[in-house]
From TrEMBL:
It is found in: Cell membrane. SUPFAM superfamilies: Cadherin-like (SSF49313). This is Cadherin-18. It comes from the Eukaryota. Residues 676-687 have a biased composition (Polar residues). The lineage of its organism: Eukaryota, Metazoa, Chordata, Craniata, Vertebrata. It comes from Buceros rhinoceros silvestris. The chain crosses the membrane at residues 543-564.
């Protein structure tokens, strides 16, 4: 029951009817239309809707007319404590540095209550800690969580789970509550110095360890993490600081011990190192907890290993004279076993190159000998590799380079440095230097650095030339007389003897060729060969050029004249049927092309074709020529000479013929043979049944010929 509506017009006789409209009318709220009592049909929740607006009206039940105006009223829902506080953001994860001071703020939590905060204490929340004491505390009003202890150490405990409760009704009995979990992690600070687990370490390293290789590891422990645990290792002292080095592995934070110099068990059997490990990132707030470094001592024991033999020298250089006999000793190498056993050593040469084939070695003594005869001028140096191995353990081998220098002996005579082209001028004077010569020697300067020049025996009294040794490894060729003539003798030969200063001295003879040449006054050579004959006749260079120029002009005139003559001998006009040459030569200018038409010489070329008299085509004769005998009756007995005479007589009697001297050449082959003519002169007018289509099958070389015969056949067909 909520309330009752009543109208002043209601007499209690049931004539008044009450009607309810608005929010929730008919569903949440119902009304008795006779009494006006209003009831709710279900429970109300203030957190869903705080009030309802309704309208009520009284009407006449019989007429349905309103008795009073419509009235509005509001039903408010009164709050009760039916909602507990809630942490909407929980659970929480938070961190706080270790060693923080007491009361350091960690996190503020907030709980919400859906009840009406303006009515009673239903929404008044109070915070408290259910789990996490004594390490943390919470403010009951604000919900701020703080550290509750001094110097909380991460290394002792890193993770904490704190449960916070929020209770309404100001924490009174009967209030509703809610809780959340806060996971707190202590973060690391550098509050722990590094420490070596032991103060003394011992490490075994074999003497065969390679320089630069890692021979051991060492590590100092640090309870901190991340960059707070980074450290650096150093060797601070000890007798092995120059033999070993240490570096830091940033991933594993270990000290890597490496070898700087080779170990030798026979010389030193152990080393001592003092190694320090120190943090690289310090926090001065905790410097009172230091020092943040630690030192340990490392003793290194060198292990004895069976080592290969060692040569007394890192490399050898030996010498041997060229041309030495095979088997000549060059030198000796020596290798010893460095181990205490001092085993015997065997020597051999590595035949990896051609040079190694030229020497042998004594396997016991290490003496190297020659295996061929050497020539320094061919190869002055040889490189070989000698190896030594223990007899008891041949797998341990040591190699050493050996260089062999071939020493020089005086086995090559000196010779001229080059081929000299010696020239003497015809107008040379006595004592004039015409050439300076030098010599070369394949031997080195120790064998004959000084050369001696002289004329070969038997030519020392040469009347034309002499030789002077300049004593500086050069010699000068001088003339002994005045004037030389090419017409008399154009080449002289001068044998020269060259010797060196080696032991024993060697010499060689070379012949210089001296040419006699014509020279200018300043000594420049003018000519040495063909022009000598012209020069003796007294012709200068200018005269010779003028003569040659005249000869060239005459040749040009002759060529031009011949060309003009050939251009005038063009063929006469030939009839279309005539395909042969017609050469007509005139002794005068004549009448040009008209003269070529004065005579029809077709009959002269072939007497068999002269069937009738043919007249000139350019003029009409006034007098008819003498009639000729028919040739058809005597073709077999006709004579060319008689035929020509007859034509000449006709020309003499024709007054219309100019008195030209005419030389005519006829291509007459004589009488026709029974086999027929093989000449091509009449082929143009002779019809042939020959088919030339097969020429097209002969390939590209006969393409042009096939086209020509194809055109001829086409014209004939047309």
């Amino acid at each position: 029951y909520i309330l009752q509506l009543h109208s002043n017009s209601d007499k209690g006789d049931g004539s008044v009817k009450y009607i309810l409209t608005g929010e929730g009318a008919g569903t949440i709220f119902i009304i008795d239309d006779t009494t006006g009592d209003i009831h709710s049909t279900k429970s109300l929740d203030r957190e869903q809707k705080t009030h309802y607006v309704l309208h009520a009206q009284a009407i006449d039940r019989r007429t349905n007319k309103p008795l009073e105006p419509e009235s509005e009223f509001i039903i408010k829902v009164q709050d009760i404590n039916d909602n507990a506080p809630k942490f909407t953001d929980g659970p929480y994860i938070v961190t706080v540095p270790e060693m923080s001071e007491m009361g350091t703020s960690v996190l503020q939590v907030t709980a919400t209550d859906a009840d009406d905060p303006t009515y009673g204490n239903s929404a008044r929340v109070v915070y408290s800690i259910l789990q996490g004491q004594p390490y943390f505390s919470v403010d009951p009003k604000t919900g701020v969580i703080r550290t509750a202890l001094h110097n909380m150490d991460r290394e002792a405990r890193e993770h904490y789970s704190v449960v916070i409760q929020a209770k309404d009704m100001a924490g009174q009995v009967g209030g509703l509550s809610g809780s959340t979990t806060v996971n707190i992690t202590l973060t690391d600070v550098n509050d722990n110095p590094p420490r070596f687990p032991q103060k003394h370490y011992q490490l075994y390293v074999p003497e065969s360890a390679q320089v630069g290789s890692a021979v051991g590891k060492i590590k100092a422990n640090d309870a901190d993490t991340g960059s707070n645990a980074d450290m650096k290792y150093t060797i601070i002292n000890g007798d092995g600081s120059g033999v070993f080095s240490i570096s830091t592995d940033k991933e594993t934070r270990e000290g890597i011990l490496s070898l700087k110099k080779p170990l030798n068990y026979e010389k030193k059997k152990s080393y001592t190192l003092n190694i320090e490990g120190a943090n690289t990132h310090l926090d001065f707030r905790f410097s009172h907890l230091g020092p943040f470094k630690d030192v340990t001592m490392l003793k290194i024991i060198v292990g004895d290993v069976d080592e290969p033999p060692l040569f007394t020298m890192p490399s050898y250089v030996m010498e041997v004279y060229e041309n030495a006999k095979i088997g000549t000793a060059v030198g000796t190498v020596l290798a010893l076993d460095p181990d205490t056993a001092n085993n015997l050593v065997r020597y051999f040469i590595d035949h990896n190159s051609e040079d190694d084939m030229y020497f042998t070695i004594d396997a016991s003594t290490g003496t190297i000998k020659t295996a061929k005869i050497f020539d320094r001028e061919e190869t002055p140096w040889y490189n070989i590799t000698v190896a030594a191995a223990e007899i008891d353990n041949p797998g341990l081998v040591t190699r050493v380079p050996v260089g062999v220098r071939i020493l020089d002996i005086n086995d090559n005579p000196p010779e001229l440095a080059r081929d000299y082209d010696v020239v003497v001028c015809e107008n040379a004077k006595p004592g004039q230097v015409i050439q300076t010569i030098t010599a070369t020697d394949k031997d080195n300067s120790a064998n004959g650095a000084r050369f001696y020049f002289s004329l070969d025996e038997g030519f020392s009294s040469n009347p034309n030339f002499t030789l002077r040794d300049n004593e500086d490894n050069t010699a000068s060729i001088l003339t002994k007389r005045r004037r030389y003539s090419r017409t008399t003798q154009d080449i002289y030969y001068l044998p020269v003897l060259i010797s060196d200063g080696g032991v024993p001295p060697l010499s060689s003879s070379s012949t210089l060729t001296i040419r006699v040449c014509a020279c200018e006054r300043d000594g420049r050579v003018r000519t040495c060969h063909a022009e000598a004959f012209l020069s003796s006749a007294g012709l200068s260079t200018g005269a010779l050029i003028a003569i040659l120029l005249c000869v060239v002009i005459l040749l040009a005139i002759v060529v031009l004249f011949v060309t003009l003559r050939r251009s005038k001998k063009e063929p006469l006009i030939i009839s279309e049927e005539d395909v042969r040459e017609n050469v007509v030569t005139y002794d005068d200018e004549g009448g040009g092309e008209e003269d070529t038409e004065a005579f029809d010489i077709t009959a002269l070329r072939n007497p068999s074709a002269a069937e009738e008299l043919k007249y000139r085509r350019d003029v009409h004769p006034e007098v008819k020529p003498v009639p000729r005998h028919p040739l058809s009756s005597s073709l077999d007995s006709i004579d060319v000479q008689e035929f020509i005479k007859q034509r000449l007589a006709e020309a003499d009697q024709d007054p219309s013929v100019p008195p030209y001297d005419s030389l005519q050449t006829y291509a007459y082959e004589g009488h026709r043979s029974e086999a027929g003519s093989i000449s091509s002169l009449d082929s143009a007018t002779t019809h042939s049944d020959q088919d030339y289509n097969y020429l097209g099958d002969w390939g590209p070389e006969f393409k042009k010929l096939a086209e020509l015969y194809g055109e001829i056949e086409s014209e004939r067909t047309t």
